[in-house]
Amino acid sequence: MASIKDVAAAAGVSVATVSRVLNDHPSVSADARTRVRAAVEALGYRPNAVARSLRTHETRTLGLVISDVLNPYFAHLARSVEEEARALGYSVIIGNADERPDLQDHHVRTLLDRRIDGLLVSPTDGGSPLMLDAARAGTPMVFVDRWIAGVDVPVVRADGRAAVHDLVAHLYALGHRRLAIIAGPAATTTGSERVEAFRVAMGEYGLPLPDAYIGQGDFQAESGRRATERFLDLAEPPEVVFAADNLMALGALDAIRARGLRIPDDIALAAFDDIPWFVHTDPPITAIAQPTAELGRAAVHALVDRVEGRPPESVTLPARLVVRRSCGEPPVAQAPTAQPSPLQRSKS
Ligand code: HPA
């Protein structure tokens, strides 16, 4: 394999000049730049990233630890993170914690051992010891989607409260009064916030939320199926099931179909997180859409700012209601949707 010395010899310049060309340093003549590029091409030279990182103490690599890579929401988020990082000259190594704190710490340890420049984390279940230690020790870190209260790390997330309010308004306008929710784990911010937002919105419409109408899920399809079966076994089943993530909504869909019930005539269904195939189900599913790609981009920018010595920003973006037919036909042509509020940014 060609070395940097071979390139310098072939181009008739010094090794330092080759290095400047490779790093896009401006103080190189156009002629030398052309000759170096031609030599790199002709010799198939590939810079040694390991040698570079030993010299510069940076690896141009970010870690992304997500809670469940099989959840389409997180897959979409990871895609956006990788794209944006690549555009900024960074690679991404992804670790899937599978909602397990021990696996989360395994990935954090491995990534820190590899000397990543910074870490994006969507924390599992309230955090894990090593991840929290790393955050407190000042490792460049940004929380994305979920976060941990009391830990001084910038957070990039969506605020779904207005959209949940719009959903309840939509359901109320359709005449639904008995609404149930399948909640995510209370130890995650996304789990606790969504059920809280639902409770508050129902309160505003004077609707009770009895314990029997709160199903405890774990963001996986099976828990959505089980919670929905319990709802359907009640003496007075709910008229609507709102699943706090897309996988639990799929589980709910299974349970409803297994009983031969029709959506929305027998029971309505809505979901948090809009995924591409919600338009292909029959009927298409009403959902709360997060600006997932924007969240990924904003998270990378916050982390790269931190890595490169600029003050990182926490970012909160609004989610919005997407009305389809799974809760009934809207009584008016235009159903309510969340008003996108301007970006709320705060220095952290
Ligand atoms: N869990 C599952 N689905 C999600 C989450 C989450 O924390 N956030 C957005 N979609």
UniProtKB/TrEMBL annotation:
Q: Where is the composition biased (Polar residues)?
A: 336-348
Q: Which Pfam families match?
A: LacI, Peripla_BP_3
Q: Record's CDD domains?
A: HTH_LacI (cd01392), PBP1_LacI_sugar_binding-like (cd06267)
State a single Gene Ontology molecular function: transcription cis-regulatory region binding
Q: Where is the HTH lacI-type domain?
A: 2-56
Q: Which InterPro entries match?
A: HTH_LacI (IPR000843), LacI/GalR-like_sensor (IPR046335), Lambda_DNA-bd_dom_sf (IPR010982), Peripla_BP_I (IPR028082)
Q: State the residue spans of region: Disordered.
A: 328-348
Q: What is the lineage of its organism?
A: Bacteria, Bacillati, Actinomycetota, Actinomycetes, Kitasatosporales
Keywords of the record, alphabetical order, are:
DNA-binding, Repressor, Transcription, Transcription regulation
Protein name stated in the entry: LacI family transcriptional regulator
